[in-house]
Amino acid sequence: MRKPKPKFKKERPPDQHAVDTDWRLFIALPMPDAVQERIAKTVDLLSDHDLPVRWVAAESAHLTLHFLGETPTERAELVRMGLGTAVSRHAPFALHTGDLGVFPGIRKPRVIWQGLNGQTERLAALHREIGRQLVQLEFEVDDRQFHPHVTLGRVRDNPPASLGVDIQHALNDRRIAELVMSSRVEIPITEVLLVRSFLERGGARHVPIDRYPLRG
């Protein structure tokens, strides 16, 4: 008589709401309604090309300044308490929507993005100062060149070899080009957000846990 195979208990993912669970954090600039509407239109047109891309919900659109990742709650509190001083040294400024593009390049695309232009030197200064604050709190900071953008979509795993050509064809769509060129959308930058990200079946859900006004 065969012995029954032992049943292995399936591991449950950690409860993201538990007190002792690390927080998945990032620091970002929110996008106004007008930009969210532009992104929704752009994604809608790009979706017509049936690309293997996970599109970002327009209402969650943001400009990431620094991604902190999984952070113990006590360190999250240090960030929450320390960001205000660094941000308040900077005065409000303005950006606006620009061209569309891909990271790291059209030959091996991974991310499709909406570029941002305008007072980018003021943005870079804010980005650097927050980075210095994070280093003081012993966080690792990405030292690659900062390219201001809003993510529109991320390429799915195992894309076809033709993906680069397909994306280039989509970006050259006359309707998309006319939308990008028709008028730029102004983006007043008046605050920085500390955001907690919850990874759920339907995608990531972002919850601001603190807001820091720019004062100058």
Write the layout of secondary structure elements.
Elements: E1 23-30, H1 33-47, E2 53-55, E3 62-71, H2 73-88, E4 93-103, E5 111-118, H3 120-136, E6 149-155, H4 163-171, H5 174-182, E7 186-189, E8 191-200, E9 203-213
Antiparallel strand pairs: 1-3, 1-8, 2-6, 4-5, 4-7, 5-6, 8-9
Count up the domains: 1
CATH first level: Alpha Beta
Looking at the structure, what is the overall shape? globular
Subunit organisation of the chains: single chain
- What portion of the residues fall into strands of 2 or more residues? 25-35%
Q: Whole-number average pLDDT?
A: 90
Total strand count, please? 9
Superfamily at the CATH H level? Cyclic phosphodiesterase
Strand order of the largest sheet: 2-6-5-4-7
Distance N terminus to C terminus?
A: 79 Å
Radius of gyration: 20 Å
User: Major sheet: size, sense and barrel closure?
Assistant: 5 strands, antiparallel
Helical amount: 25-40%
The CATH architecture name reads Alpha-Beta Complex
- Number of DSSP helices? 5
Determine the CATH topology: Cyclic Phosphodiesterase, Chain: A
- Helix and strand succession? EHEEHEEHEHHEEE
Would you mind describing this structure in some detail?
The chain has 216 residues and is of the alpha+beta class. The protein has one domain (23-213): Cyclic phosphodiesterase (Cyclic Phosphodiesterase, Chain: A). The chain contains five helices and nine strands, in the order βαββαββαβααβββ. The chain has helices spanning 33-47, 73-88, 120-136, 163-171, 174-182, and strands spanning 23-30, 53-55, 62-71, 93-103, 111-118, 149-155, 186-189, 191-200, 203-213. A five-stranded antiparallel β-sheet has the order 2-6-5-4-7, sandwiched between helices. The chain has a four-stranded antiparallel β-sheet with strand order 3-1-8-9, with helices on one face. β8 and β9 form a beta hairpin. Residues 5-16 have low confidence and may be disordered.
